[in-house]
Every structure is written in C-alpha cells, then in structure tokens.
Amino acid sequence: KTEAGEVFSASKVRADTFVVADKFGDQGYAFANVVPDTKINRQAGVVDIEFRTEKGMPVVVDEIKISGNTKTYDNVIRREFKLNEKELYSSTKIKRAETLLKRSGYFEDVTISTESSDNPNEVDLNVNVKEGPTGSFSAGAGYSTADGAIVSSNLTERNVMGTGRKLSLGADVGADRESLLLSLDDPRFQDSYWAVGTDVSKSQRQYSDFDRGMTGGSLSVGYPLEELAGTWAEDVNLGMKYQYWDIEIDDIDPADAAQLVIDSEGTSTASAVIPSIVRNTINNPMNPTSGSRQVLSLEMAGLGGSEDYYVAEFKNTYYTPLIKFTKDDLVFSWRFNAGYGESNTDEPFPLFRRYFPGGINSVRGYQFRTLGPKDENGNEYGGSKELVNNLEMIFPLIPSAGFKGVIFFDAGQAFDDDVSIEIAELRLAYGYGIRWMSPIGPIRVEIGHPIDKEDDEDSLVTLFSFGAPL
User: Fold this and answer.
1) Cβ contact 201:244 at 8 Å
2) Cα–Cα distance, 122 to 31 (Å, whole number)
3) Which of 219, 232, 224, 19 is nearest to 103 (CA)?
4) With b meaning 16 or more CB within 10 Å and e meaning fewer, what string describes 408-426?
5) What are 321-367's pLDDT values in tens digits?
6) Which strands make up the sheet holding 122-131, listed edge to edge?
7) Which residues, at least 6 apart from 290, have a Cβ–Cβ distance to it below 8 Å?
8) DSSP strand E in 187-265: where?
C-alpha cells in the first residue's frame, strides 16, 4: 500500500512487510525474512524504502499435529485445512484454516504454529485448540409486544459427540402462539464439503382476526462456492431446500377481518423448493461489530401442493465499527430486507406467506403487523411485496454489564398484489432504545416515533422484548 510521493507511514510499511512475507509463504517459503531498509534524506524531507528479502528454501508440511481436543474428533479439525500433509507450505491456507476453526463455535481459542522438523525442507504444523462449551439448555418466560407472554425452552448441542453436527429441540408456549421444532444439521457430511440438514415443526399462531396452524418439515443441502470458483468466493455458500407445509386458517372474526382473510379460511398444502446463495463474514453472531451477511433466495411452490406461488427475497445485514473504545465499539448497523411474491394462478397471493410490516423487528414506530394493504374498513390483509430498511447506531453504555444504546431510522411498507413497490410510499420512523444481554436472555426496550403519522396511529410506540425469540 506504500506509494511514492505520499507521506511516510511506519504502520503502512510494517503491514507491507507482512504482505510481502505472506506472498513468499504462499509459495512454500515458510521462513522467508523481509526487512524494510530505510534511507532518510532529512534535508530534502524524503525517505527511500528497500524491502530486503531472504526467502530460504521452499518447504513442505510433514505432519499436522493436533492437541487440546478431548471431545472433538481430529477429522473435524483436519477437514478445515485446505493444506494436506506432504504438500507445499502455504501461509494463506493456514490462516484460513485458523479462521474457519474459530468460526465453527467449537473452540474458545485456536493457535497454529510452525515447527522445524529433522529435515530442513519440511515443517510440522502444531494445531492447539481450547474447547469451549457447545451444549446449552434454556428455559424461561418472557414477553414481547409482537408475541405477547411466552414460555420457551431450547436444548441445543452444536458438536454432537464431537462430530461437528448440530441438534436442536425447541418449544414455545404463549398466549398467542405455540410451536415445536426439531432440527439436525451436519455442516460437513461425511467430511465432504456438502452440508445437509433436516427439520420438522408444528406451530399455532393467533392473530386478532384469524388463527394460523402450520405443520411440516424440510430437507436442505449446501455447498461452498469457493470449491467451484476459487478463493474469490470465500464465505459464499450455495443451498437448496425442499419444504412442505400443511396450513390451516380458521377462527376468523368476520367483523374484524378483510375479505381476503375470510376467503382464505380452510386447509391447504404447500410444497416448495428454495434455492439460495448466502455470504457471511460477520465476526461474532452473538455480539456483531463487523462483517456482513447477504441471503438471496427464491421459494417456488406448486410441486404437488395446492398452493402455487413464488417468492424472491434478498436480506442484507451489515456491521462496521466507527470508533473503537477500550471495551466496546461504536457500531453502525444496516439491515435491508426485500421480498417479492406472486401467485402463479388467478387466486390472490396466499395469506400465510403475505407480509405484515411493523413491530420491533420491522418498522419501529408502528405496532406489530399494522402496516401494509388494508380494506376500506382499515382491516389488514398483508402484501405480496415488502421493503424494509433499518439504520442503527449502536453505542456502549455500560460495557462491563452488557448495556448498549441504540438510535435508529426505519423505512418500510408492504404492497398489494396489483401494486408496484413505490419508494415514496414507504412509512418512516425514528427512535432510540436500550439493549441488554442479560444473564437470563436478551432484553430490548425501544421507542419509535412515526414520521408520517396517520390519524388512527400513535405518535409514540414503545416496543419491548424479553426472553422471546427474535
């Protein structure tokens, strides 16, 4: 990055030294030595830099030695290496393996060091891991403005018997909803690059104007694009899911329901395939401060079920630290969700897949499920298209206790089947709040103010979530 004619930067020269050394490291020169030699002309106010290099001899990796794992099988660790024993040394591949092992969530710490062997043309890699807890059980009660009172429990093991597989069983019982979910995921099936997963679920949800019951399951497979396209596609995965649902719409209140809701009463089935592409570089899913995640998917139903429709969705999540403090950062966050659905028949887009923006996880400043198309009596029936944009500044309040503050600006709306997405029609809101990662679960209190308030809407909406799934 150092260029002639610019102001000298010692930190930039230091970084360039490591870049040059890594380039040699990728060609097998494990012990390359790079020294920036500076010649200063104080009178002229200039400095010349010469990078002196000693490559040494190229070496191969003799052994990959693993230590510290008492539960995790060696193959779960070894499979993250693109570098095999008896292959030419590569510093980039070693760093990549270290990153993937840390991101797996199985280990508290991972270090990979190089050790000389008896043969001067060979080196050993010492992989030392410190295993962390991978199983969790939680049970508790909570409340949110979106879900009401809720009792939830979840049993999860992210490294089943040291195999790297994830097993999860969750149940929620509340005033307005009941759900049960069982899932099993294998991120590296038979140590291949294929990811496979399956789940079964049953849920019952009560809304103000109707009840919705859904029972079904899915099968999914995934594959890293990097294996097909090279290193430029790191952190990008291709996926395909098959999903089946039995849906029941009942307990409709005709006096408080739109005609589309009344016409949707009864049972139906949805059989769909969902191809997707996911890119994820978020540094810490529990407390993200940098990185991003993008998901592009296309849900196509009509393969044997009674429902026939498609939904294209794009979701973006982005974090970047603006100011780094000692214990926490000032972080800018951007979330953007776009969805476009359409029926393949003359029937309206199905009710169970329609969009109802509003609430703590959507456009704050408006109550849960109050935005989107309405009939002449003001009854919501949801849209087939949605656009939601959330901008946030997240700042530390009491870092040692896990308290953070947030200020936000939201814009979003859902649109009917025969209406195009119009940016000018987005509903706007701003607000502020407090977030606390408490010992008993996440707590959020956020206050939203609608910018373009209509006569029947509140000028201030308090949104609260404690212990409830987000």
Assistant:
1) no
2) 11
3) 224
4) bbbbbbbbbbeeebeeeeb
5) 999 887 788 999 999 999 999 999 999 999 999 999 988 889 998 98
6) 60-67, 122-131, 107-116
7) 282, 283, 319, 320, 321, 331
8) 195-206, 211-224, 236-250
